[in-house]
Each structure stands twice: as C-alpha cells, then as structure tokens.
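Let us work through a complete example step by step.
Step 1: write down the sequence.
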Amino acid sequence: MKTSRMIWSHRLVLVVFFTVVISGGWIIWEVDVVDPPGPSPVDKAKEDLTRIDYPSQREIRWRSRFIKPHETLESLYGKDWPLVARFNRVDRRHVYPGMTIKEPERMDDIRTYSPLPKEHPPAKRYRRYILLDLTEQWLGAYERGLLKFSMPAATGKAGHDTPLGIFRIDARHQTHTSSLYRLPGEEGGQYPMDYALRFHIDKTNVGFWIHARDLPGRPASHGCIGLFDEEMQERTFGTPRKPALVDSRKLYEWAVPDSEYGDDYGEFQEITNGPLLEVRGTLPVYR
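Step 2: predict the structure and record it as tokens.
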C-alpha cells in the first residue's frame, strides 16, 4: 500500500513537472511573437498622438514613434527636436515612455511647417490680427494680411470649448494666474498663465485668455488658448532644464508692445484698440 502511494506520488510530480515545462514553453513562445509595445487600444488618456487628424498633415509622410524608456525628443532628433515638438503640438514635459508621436519620414518636410495660409484677406485692414484654427490647433500672427509667424496651440477640449467668432484683445497681464485652477499638490498655488492676453468675458464673468500653458499634443484647456512657454514650466515644474520654446512671450510682445501700450510692469492692464482675434473651425477628429 505504501509502495502504491509512492508510485502515484511520483507520477503526480512528473505530471506537474511536464505541465510546468510545457506551459512555460508556451508562455515564452507567446512573449517572443508578441507585437512591439504600443499604446493602450482603449487610450483613455489620448496618449497616441498619431490618432489626431490634422488636415495639413495628410500630404506629409510620417510614421508612428512609440516612446520607450529613457527616450526624449532631444535623444531621438538632436537639434531638430523643436520641429517634431511643433509638428505634434506637444511640449517636452509631455513626451514620456508609453506615448506615441508622429515622426516625419524626412525632417526637411517640416522645417517650414505651418498649416495656416500665408495670406489672410480679412486681416489686410489691420496692422495686427490673430487667427486661431481649432481644427489645426494652430495660431498665426498677421500684419496687414500677411503671416508674420505662427505656432501650435492647445485650445478648449470638448465640453470646455474655446468660443468661436471675432474678438478683440482688451487686457494684458504678464504675470497672470488662474483664479479657478491650482497646481497639483496640497501646497500648489494658482496655475500660472504668463504673458496673458484677454479676449473674451462670458455671461458668467469668466475670462478667456491666450497664455502660457502645458501643451500635451491635443485640445486640453477649459476654453483658453495655451501656447508654449518652457520658461514657465521650468520655474513651475523644474523641467526642462534649458527652456527653449517661448511662444507665449513672442506673441505677447508682438501683440501688445510697450512702445504702444506703455511700460509693462507685470500688472493687470486693460487696453484699447488691441489686435483682433479670429477663432474658427472645429476640434480635430481623434480616430
């Protein structure tokens, strides 16, 4: 009886052993043939920027680039990293492992990339005129109808829409902060909105501004228009260490120069005869 039990015990051990070996081999085989890592198919955080359809990019050849650990825009593209950042409407702080960006097949194809027209007839009557295209998430500065410069933007997300229409810049505030939103953490202060240009106040007395903010590569604000400002990000979040993209300051200094509106000491100031802002289009499709 004891011998019989030992035999069955040995058989059970052998069965378990071969089951583990076979199962282990099967598991190893599956890992070997699995596709390269990619974003979650659900993608609730919208981390796959290749799914955003910008009409101006349909004629430009690009491929998906999944960001792996220790990869950055600088390590991938060297001195051309700002071109890729602008092409994706994303700042360096929001390029992290696990997300996917659009990588142009030829960097020369995006060196002068701008989805806005070089001439905008409605702006010909004005010395300064700002055009925001929601579909392209892009803003342009026009002088007498000719495009002076342009830059990516992050506008209001669905449900927090940036208002459409023609507005006039009626206030400036170089050191503005949000009265509604705070930085993360218990001790987080009000969210900084450097180089702010107010263009609208709604019926509930909420102001809408063009200002410095994070650009995650998609519509993300509560209605304001956000522009690159890595100096604000470095001061607030400690990154990037060497700020380079300062679009909000560039637009601010062009739109409301001290030569016309007086010395700017960083305080809130209402202004008259500010540039017009035209907001057009619909939010881009996320496929």
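Step 3: interpret the result. Confidence is low (pLDDT under 50) at residues 1-9, 12-37.
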